[in-house]
Each structure stands twice: as structure tokens, then as C-alpha cells.
Amino acid sequence: MEPLLIAGFQCNELNDVLSRLHYQLHYIDIDSYNKNTIPPDCALCLIDLRKNNIVNKINYLVKDLDPGIHIIVLIDKSQLEISEITTFIAQYAWDFCTSPIDPERLEKCLGHGIGLSKLKQQHQAPFGEQPEHDTDKPVTQSDVMQQLFRQVERVAPTDIPVLIRGESGTGKELVATKLHQFSSRKDGPFVTVNCGAMAAGLIQSELFGHEKGAFTGAVSARKGKIALADGGTLFLDEIGDLPAELQVNLLRFLQEGLYDSVGGGVPQTANVRIIAATHVNLENAIDQGQFRLDLYYRLNGITIETPRLKDRRDDIIGLANRFIRIYSDEYGLAIKPLSQSACHALLNYPWPGNVRELINRVRRAVVLSDAQQISAQNLELASIEKKRHIALSLKTLKDNAEKQALQQAILIADGQVELAASYLDISRATFYRLMDKHDLQLM
Ligand SMILES: Nc1ncnc2c1ncn2[C@@H]1O[C@H](COP(=O)(O)OP(=O)(O)OP(=O)(O)O)[C@@H](O)[C@H]1O
């Protein structure tokens, strides 16, 4: 593994530090950069932003890097005032060092970064080390999602039925496809049935198939989804909406491996792994007599819960960046970074529609943004930012009023703490604590 060094500016002063690290260095001149200049086994990327603000140019390179590559940024302290630079650091950097560069600190930082990359590669989880631009792989920056996909990995090779529970848009179907892709059935079909979207009269034939002439309009025999999933996985989405009659038929298939097509006399078999998903509480549906308890037990071999987006905030920025890239590519637009206020708004919004809502907001923002960065307004989340500012200014107002009251009390009480505290109806201890907080002195 070799680190990638992007210097090109004032790298001479770094030569000592770099020569002590026994890794092959690879320099990239950002002006003549193209994707092929990134070595495939690179572990670390050092970006020198001092004196030159090359964020716009670097953005392209950073997006070409595997996310397993740690990025260390060198900046001048004053650049911490530049929002473009702080946004870049917040989004991409693993660490940063400010000028004057302390060689010891940089050496430790580089050594640590390379060591960590190696460790991660050695213990690579299939979902943890994905190239971010591989849009097929789930974003799993949060601990809870990493844990969830480790569970997926363990459960996938078994044929145990899985019940995936979670709010709408949390990634239930995504988990189902991964369970299939990581199973020995991966070369077989993955067939989805949305139990909530089919007309009650059609679902029987949709699931189990029909024979020619089974009903008016059945001009030829047709295979059902179970037969189509033979050798693979059948994903029953919104299982809570499955009509009662079909629950019986499905239960028979799960228990005996047999089913009847509509109008067919001979029971049929299929080798299918069942994965079901629901956003409703099946226990409630059972209590209300709408869902069969025996079917519930059959489906619920293992439960996987997909968490709400607001319960895994560490994924939000990664997901937003993923979808910015996807839709910018799709619409042929330049890939723009999120502004700082956009990041704040994304992190503070409650996301009732989960990842699907995030996708919609980001897609609109990619199209609507006419500035260098994607703003909270583009995401239609400006009100979240306003609320934050109101909350901040309310705190400032409260603090100012508190300080003024203390100052007046000290003045009127002529510096006698006991008296001043009694004017404000607070204890002596609280009075001292507040004086300390506002950096006030007795007269
Ligand atoms: N961790 C993730 N990384 C990348 N994309 C994700 C992730 N989680 C969800 N998505 C995307 O979000 C969208 C919604 O996910 P999905 O359809 O799997 O949700 P769902 O829970 O099945 O929703 P519903 O209950 O409404 O059918 C999909 O485009 C999916 O690819």
C-alpha cells in the first residue's frame, strides 16, 4: 500500500517528515490531474490547501478517491474562517493540520492514517469499505447501520425467513436485495411482490399463477411470482396488507412447500427463500384479527429492523453526497458540495420520510442550485436554519438580560453580594456562579 501525496505547492518543508515514513510517495500535480493518476493501492491522501485555495479543483479528485482512503488537509489557521474550506474539511478530511506545521504532529498523523487504512483493509466488512461512487452499495457510516449490515451478512447465507421491519423509506427493500446478493441464491431470481399495491382479486393469480381458462380473461396459463422466484428469493413487501385468504395459502406454502395455481388441480412446488417486510406493527394487526399468528411465526425466523434516518444521523451527509453525485451525473451537472448551513439543516431536520425524502430533496436541490454550493434553501430546509438562528438569538437575549440584571443588582446593593442576590431572589452560590459565567467583578 502506498500513500498518495498531493503537494505541488510548498512540499519542500515537508520532505524531512515524508522521508522518515517508509512509504512510497506519489505526487499529483492538480493542474494536470486525471483519474488515472491515482494509484490503485493508495492508502492516504495529503492535500495542501495553504496559500492556494484549490477547493474547486480538488473536489473532483476527492470524489474519485475510494472513501477508504484517509484525507489529511494542510491549511493556514486563517483559512478556518473560510466556509468553503471548513465545509471541505468537514465533508472529506480524516484530519487536518494548521500552519506552522508541527513535523512531529504531521508524522504521527500520517503514520496513524496509513496504519488505520491498513487495519480497515485487513478487517474489511463488505459494506464498510465500499467505494462511495459505487452507487449500488448502501451508505453505512453510522454504527447502527454497520451493525445492521453485519447482521445481514450473517443471516444471508442461511435459508431462514427474514422479517424486515421499519418505517417507509428506511431501506427495507435495499436490505432484502442485499440478503439475496449475499446468499447462495444470488445467481437465482429476486422477485418482489408488493402485497399492498395489488388489487385483491388479482393477487391470488399474481402470487400463485393461473391456468388457461381459470377465469374470464385468462387466455393462457401464467406463472405466478412464487414460480418465477424458484431457485431464488421472494420478497413480500408490505406483508401486513396480504388479504386473509392468501395468508392461508402462503402459510401452506411455507409449511409444506406446496401451492395451487388458480384453476390448477395439481399442487406445485418451488424452492424459494422468503423475505417479508412491513412498516405496520404486525402484533397489533394480529390482536385485531387481521394477520394470522401462525403465519407471523413462519415469516419471522429472524427480524431485522431498519432504523429511522433521524436515529442514524451519521449517515445523513454521506447519503446526501451520494445522491448529489448520482443526480449530478444523471442530469449532466457539475457536482457541488453542500454549504455549511445545508449540512446543519440536513442534520437538524427530523426526516419523517426517511431516506426516500432525502433523495427527493437532494434531487430537487441538484437541479435548482445556481451557486457554487448546495444551500439549505435549495434543499427547501431554510426554515430549519432560521429556527436554529432564532434559538441562538433567544439564548443571546436571555444571556444579555441575565448579565444586565446582575450588573444592576451589584450597583444597587453597592457591591454587597448577600443583598444583590436577595434582590434577584437567588442564592449567594448561584449569584457567584452567574458572576463567573458573565465574567463580572464586584465593585
Ligand atoms: N443506507 C442506504 N444507502 C443508500 N441508499 C439507501 C440506503 N437506505 C435506503 N436507501 C435508498 O432509499 C430509497 C428507499 O429505500 P427502500 O425502498 O429500500 O425503503 P423501504 O423501507 O423499502 O420503503 P417502503 O416501505 O416505502 O417501500 C431507495 O432508493 C434506497 O436505495
From TrEMBL:
Gene3D superfamilies: 1.10.8.60, Homeodomain-like, P-loop containing nucleotide triphosphate hydrolases. Residues 138-367 form the Sigma-54 factor interaction domain. InterPro entries: AAA+_ATPase, AAA_lid_NorR, CheY-like_superfamily, Homeodomain-like_sf, P-loop_NTPase, Sigma_54_int, Sigma_54_int_dom_ATP-bd_1, Sigma_54_int_dom_ATP-bd_2. The keyword Ion transport does not apply. Keywords: ATP-binding, DNA-binding, Nucleotide-binding, Transcription, Transcription regulation. This is Sigma-54-dependent Fis family transcriptional regulator. It comes from Shewanella inventionis.
